[in-house]
Design a protein that fits this description.
The chain contains 10 helices and 12 strands. The chain is α/β, with parallel strands linked by helices and about 325 residues long.
């Protein structure tokens, strides 16, 4: 039964790809980031290949519990475990998954080399790496953080076993000298046969005495999985980049200047066409009565203009208008 799937690695790849687009990412830093992306992608492929084999053989079994991608912290120590396989015999197979697309070679001193473009380069020993994982797991179980099953008042402690899983298409060059732990380096497609054979060869009667129930096995596996502590890796710090992306000089905003003081508004003279036209333009010349010579206002004189046949076109004051007749 699959208790925990692997964590999603895509956000980490997206973050690294974003770092490649930064203007302050130099050539050397860019190469290191690109290599980190390749390492993560290769790790994903290796883990997925191993996880597939485990799902085929134990995915539906209640006698086996599978935990992928487990990160635990014990007394300041950290173990990043690719796969845990737990069975009812209280055997825990700790699996370290390696992709190594072109294979690995081990010399008589137990030193490991991988290949890139057919050229070897040194890599840390996955046997020693997994031995540290087992040591930290043992500390975890000894601390009492995980409640282990008991029988007749005695605690049943798990038997921790190591496996290093290599891509099924990779080559493994082994030395002629006998090296401890080397037999535990196998290909992904051999994991079921290797474990099955190991159980058959173990004729220890105490193995049957340690067998636990399916429900107890599942409860133990889920308790272990709950201890998983994922970490958000600080990629910018790893590659020596500042937290904030620097702004190019051309794009930097200039200093904020004080707003210019508002000047007193001066109303521009309206154009002639915009001036309101007077209803009727008053004449500027002085109006004189034609009969008596008195001054005549416009409002009086207009009756003379409007009634030209009567006044003969002349202007008369109000009194004269009453007596005059057209010439």
């Amino acid at each position: 039964m699959i208790i925990k799937e692997a964590d999603d690695k895509k956000p980490a790849i997206q973050t690294l790809q974003a770092l490649l687009s930064r203007p302050d990412c130099g050539t050397d830093t860019r190469k290191r980031i690109e290599q980190e992306i390749r390492n993560i992608q290769a790790g994903i492929r290796g883990e997925e290949e191993a996880a597939y084999e485990m799902r085929v053989h134990w995915g539906e079994s209640k006698n086996w519990m599978v935990i992928h991608d487990l990160r635990i912290e014990v007394s300041g120590l950290v173990a990043q475990i690719d796969h845990l396989l737990i069975n009812r015999f209280m055997e825990i197979w700790v699996c370290e998954s390696k992709h190594f697309s072109e294979g690995i070679a081990i010399n008589e001193h137990g030193e490991f080399a991988a290949f890139f473009g057919s050229k070897p380069y040194g890599v840390p020993s996955p046997i020693e790496q997994n031995a540290k994982h087992i040591l930290i797991l043992r500390k975890l179980f000894d601390s009492g953080t995980v409640k282990l099953p008991t029988r007749l008042g005695f605690t049943i402690k798990p038997d921790l076993k190591s496996l290093v899983l290599v891509s099924k298409g990779a080559r493994i060059s082994r030395p002629k000298a006998k090296i401890d732990g080397l037999e535990a380096i196998i290909k992904n497609d051999q994991v079921f046969k290797y474990i099955d054979k190991s159980i058959d060869q173990n004729n220890n009667p105490l193995l049957m005495a340690k067998i636990i129930g399916q429900d107890t096995l599942e409860a133990l596996a889920r308790e272990i999985a709950r201890l998983h502590k994922p970490i958000a890796f600080d990629w910018t710090a790893k590659f020596g980049l500042p937290k904030e992306t620097p702004v190019p000089p051309a794009a930097k905003p200039g200093p904020v200047s004080a707003a210019p003081k508002a000047e007193a508004a001066v109303e521009a003279p309206a154009p002639e066409s915009a001036k309101p036209a007077a209803a009727e333009e008053k004449p500027k010349q002085k109006l004189i009565c034609h009969a008596c010579g008195a001054s005549v206002g416009y409002n009086v004189a207009k009756f003379c203009w409007f009634n030209k046949p009567k006044f003969g076109g002349n202007i008369y004051c109000m009194d004269c208008q009453k007596t005059v007749s057209a010439a």
